[in-house]
Amino acid sequence: MDIFLEAFLNVLSIKNIIAMTLLIPLGMMAGALPGFTATMAVAILVPFTFAMNPIMGLICVSAVYCAAIYGGAFPAILINTPGTPSSIATCFDGYPMTLQGRAQEALFTIAFASLVGGFIGTIGLIAFSLPLAKIALKFGPPEYFWVSIFGLTIIAGLSGDSLLKGIAGGVLGLLISTIGIAPVGGDVRFTFGIASFQGGVELISVLIGFFCIPEVFKMAKDPVGSYLKSTNIGHEGGGYREVIYKGFKNAFTDTINLVRSSIIGLFVGILPGAGGNIANLIAYNETKRASKDPESFGKGNPQGIVATESADKATIMGSFVPLLTLGVPGSPVAAVVYGALMIQGLNPGPELFTKHAEITYTFMMSFFVAMALTVLIGMFAGVLFYQIIMRLPVRVLVPAILLLTIVGSYAVRNNYMDVIFMLASGYLGYVLSNLGFSPGPVVLGLVLGPIAEKGLVQGFLMGNSMFPGTPWLIFFTRPISIVLIVISVISALWPIYAARRRRRAAL
Amino acid sequence: MKRFMTGLAIVLLFVAVFGVFGMMAEAAYPERPITYVIAFNPGGESDITARAQQPYLEKVLGTQIIITYKIGGGGAVAWSEVPRMRPDGYTIVGHNIPHIILQPLQRKDTGYKTTDLKTVCWFQATPNILVVPVDSQFKTLEDFVKYAKEHPGQITLGGSGSYSANHLGTVEFNEAAGIETTYIPFTGSGDAVPAFLGGHVTGLMTYTTMVANYREQMRPLAVATEERVSIFPDVPTFKELGYDYVEGAYRGICVSPKTPDEIVNKLADAFKQVNETPEFKEMMEAMGFQMVFYGPEESEKFVEDRVEYYKSILDKLEMK
Fold this sequence. Notes:
The complex is a heterodimer. By secondary structure, chain A is mostly helical. Chain A has helices spanning about 1-10, 15-30, 40-50, 55-70, 75-80, 90-100, 105-135, 140-155, 155-160, 165-175, 205-220, 230-235, 240-255, 255-270, 275-290, 300-320, 320-325, 330-345, 350-355, 355-390, 395-415, 415-435, 440-465, 480-505, and strands at about 180, 190. Chain B is built from eleven helices and ten strands. Chain B is elongated, with a radius of gyration of 23 Å.
């Protein structure tokens, strides 16, 4: 127990608290700018940490990471654009809340949801790292294939009015994901002779295109006046105390939702290769599925953002489980930290718990403290962000956002092709949204396509060595695969069951 | 007319100013910060190496080194821009063998030819190494080959990517030993580790750096070098055990093909000095990297040899 206390005191030293407080606004800004991801924020920070002692360096990493993921929710709620892929589903209910004049309520709701997500994530990281990592290792290529199939079954929950349009969108996303070099086999696909296409389509530039550009077009339709006309305060009276209380109530009325979403986030985060981009979508869908009133989702139900924002915070801690226990960087940010640890002379993996236990536990503890500070600063930052957007006239806001989308999509990979993709998908997104397609399934297909493909091809290769002639058997003979298949089938059939239940209730 | 004269004067002033800057740049390279482009993800071997080199390079060259990333297509996206880059030595790009050789041979529209990349130097190697889990039934390479002969195709070996040193290495080893194993490509050497630790593959054909990281979990059977690697003195080479198989990846930097020789030489010298710094060398070797050095001229020859070598392997395997 001593070690925990020591670690906790380490985090709370004045020096570290000051460092975190200074870095959190920067991380939040990076997260809030579409195109600048948590990975980039951490990658920029890391060289500076070489000059610090390992403990302080790692604490800075956790502060920037938490802050960037938190910041990603601001544009999701206020302008319907996820700042990072971890906040995709936050748009679905966060933005409708803004349109109803409940933006500040939403911003305070995610503050409390994040706090719980961060808390549960940290507990999971500290208490259950080793067993959780062992479970994650049981997932081989066939299991990853089934996980992504399960992921695709939630299309129904994300498709809005028409399931058929949702499936079409999902297929479109899967197809876009095949552009570039095949993840296994190295074949070149759909590059049309353009060298830059070899890198494939970057999720973030498509996200910006699909979510942000149509919104900007809609804003431009009504260029007079300001974008957010009504506010909570004034219209509903009561001032900040009231709004904060509402946010608090939103987060805690359905504790099952909070805990379930955080656990989903934690576990998805632990799986190497899966992260916040998938966790927030799954958590959103499960909340909607469990709700007695699924119709209210997508129309400004605060439980939607409670789910996504608690889940994506828990993925932060989850993504460090494989790195710290096994030395396997399971996410892009963990990979950056892996590099940093190596240069600091710390060997990622089991050694961290024996030789460098103090550093490791301090790092783990620092997540919760960083998250608490982030939430505290995030409340002010959210209000500030909101005030800025509210006050800017649309004729300033539209070009400013457009400029940011271009800079952001270029910055992801320093590749002008991403800007072209962003604009093209923006136009496509605008047309599709007018036709009643929602962007969720497209993005889902894009995220899951490469995981499904890799799992399928690697699984077949494995299968060929185990069952020569009938390689597909491998997908149906492993225990975890079978569990995943059952879950997928239930999930796929759920909409039919739910529709029947509703019909019966209506009778 | 007056307006024209003013315009002319401004233009001339610009020309003069930029001309002077241009001459200064030629006079004393490097005059301003150098951008070091990494073609792979942050946290990978190339990134770790560049981050480790950065402070030493800055000291030797007397200017700032800015590390940026241009990721995609297994490095091809970054390398396809090298031929079009300004030949002034202010943008240097990390590149790898066999990637820059195999991609143009295997893909149609890589966007660059191997000879388009002017190699400044190769400064580091990561040899292939065959590993199995510590609790594996295979204690020696002999056990492994014997089992593979009795059970053709049943052993699965994970490695980094398709058409990589790991991939070709597995094929070369199969041929040298007269066995058949199944190679399973992963997206990067680190990506294969969870599958290895989870027992989803029999072993890995990976790089020495991986074994340095996972000493507790990996049992190296043999390393694909001419001589034993200094940090694993107990691990035999394939050659010692009678298999003619040497393979691995090399890392270096390249610049635009028209870059003047003085600049190329100056950069090569700087990287050489960094390599020879004892502190740096020790750090890199502890991480499992092998320190080598090929200067600009040796590099050209080296690449030509490797091109012929890989062509022969690709032909032999009809993978082309």
